[in-house]
Amino acid sequence: MQNPEPGAATAASEDAAWASIKTPLTATQLQEFCRDIERLYRINPFIEFSTWQQLDAYRYRVIGRNLSQTPGFDFDYTLTASEQGDALLVTYSQGLKTSTRFQFEDDPLGSRLTIIDDYAGASPEDRKQRLGEVDKSLIKWAGDLQLYLVMWRRWSWLAPWRWYMRRIWQPLKPTARRILYMLLWISLVEVALLILGFTVYWLEFT
């Protein structure tokens, strides 16, 4: 599995950043997956949403906190999504970032997803004064998307897995997901120890 490839996307803008990952899905499957905008953004491990409200088929009101900077910064804006051939463009009504473009490309082993954050809407002076609002989650977000897509390819056929990821995992804040993950592992270890203890008892006393 490749790590996300970071860089400056000068083809899109002099004020943009990008990350690119390979995925096991076809480009068509990847584009279909990304049409679920809420799931796409909630996979980001540095974003905590307090409100996600769908306004219509293509617009969403989102309120939350971005923890990719120290200290984190709050946001409250409207996302507007539009499909542009082999890409999905999401624009922001407020904030330093103007848009995020998701580019889908075929790859010999599946597909390639390139995410481009564009900051060209703000003046150079404004960007300099608002460096604390730059979203630094891009590389980690791309990496977590890649891991999610690998799991999606492997387990999406299983209805209980899809239910768990949508109904339990997705609404949780990233910190709560980590706690849940640790609790699940602790529970598995406890069950394994109980089985081991029962096995030893059975072999020794029966």
Outline the structure in words.
The chain folds into two domains: 5-157, 2-Layer Sandwich (Alpha-D-Glucose-1,6-Bisphosphate, Chain A, domain 4); 172-206. The chain is globular, with a radius of gyration of 20 Å. The protein is 39% helix and 30% strand. With 206 residues, the chain is α+β, with helices and mostly antiparallel strands. It has helices spanning 27-34, 37-42, 124-129, 138-155, 159-169, 174-205, and strands at 5-7, 16-23, 47-54, 59-66, 73-83, 87-92, 99-107, 110-118.
Spatial strand sequence of the major β-sheet? 1-2-8-7-6-5-4-3
Largest sheet: 8 strands, antiparallel
Rough outline: globular
Distance between the termini: 49 Å
What fraction strand?
25-35%
- Unreliable spans are 8-13
What portion of residues is helical? 25-40%
Question: Class of the largest domain, according to the CATH hierarchy?
Answer: Alpha Beta
The CATH topology of the largest domain corresponds to Alpha-D-Glucose-1,6-Bisphosphate, Chain A, domain 4
Mean pLDDT: 85
What is the name of the CATH superfamily of the largest domain?
A: START domain
How would you summarize the topology of this molecule?
Blueprint: E1 5-7, E2 16-23, H1 27-34, H2 37-42, E3 47-54, E4 59-66, E5 73-83, E6 87-92, E7 99-107, E8 110-118, H3 124-129, H4 138-155, H5 159-169, H6 174-205
Antiparallel strand pairs: 1-2, 2-8, 3-4, 4-5, 5-6, 6-7, 7-8
